């Protein structure tokens, strides 16, 4: 099967699962704030990890 057919099948299966679920009609302020803070902390953690790996890489090259 080609890459396009596999992609189409994956999208069709995932869309069916996502659209079949009942979600909340409205999110509270705490949920939105928690998601924003979590995303910010996750981004900081990712930047710190990349910085550490970069320093480790440059130490080995010298």
Describe the structure.
The chain has 62 residues and is an all-alpha fold. The chain has a domain at 31-62. The chain is 81% helix and 0% strand. The protein has helices at residues 3-19, 29-61. The longest helix is centred in the C-terminal third of the chain and has 33 residues, at 29-61. The mean pLDDT is 82.
- Which structural class do you get from the secondary structure elements? mainly alpha
Instruction: Count the E strands.
Output: 0
Q: What's the SSE pattern?
A: HH
**On the 0-100 scale, what is the average pLDDT?**
82
Q: Number of helix segments?
A: 2
Quaternary structure state of the chains depicted = single chain
The dominant shape is: flat
Q: Are there runs of 5+ residues with pLDDT below 50, and where?
A: none
Percent of residues in beta strands = under 5%
**First-residue to last-residue Cα separation:** 46 Å
Rounded to the nearest angstrom, the radius of gyration is: 20 Å
* Helix amount: over 70%
Largest sheet: none
Describe the SSE topology.
Layout: H1 3-19, H2 29-61
Which tags fit this structure?
mainly alpha; 62 residues; single chain
Summarize the structure.
This protein is mostly helical and 62 residues long.
């Amino acid at each position: 099967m080609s890459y396009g057919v596999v992609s189409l099948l994956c999208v069709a299966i995932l869309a069916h699962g996502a659209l079949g679920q009942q979600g909340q009609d409205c999110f509270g302020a705490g949920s939105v704030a928690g998601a924003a803070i979590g995303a910010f902390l996750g981004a900081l953690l990712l930047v710190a990890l990349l910085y550490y790996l970069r320093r480790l890489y440059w130490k080995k090259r010298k």
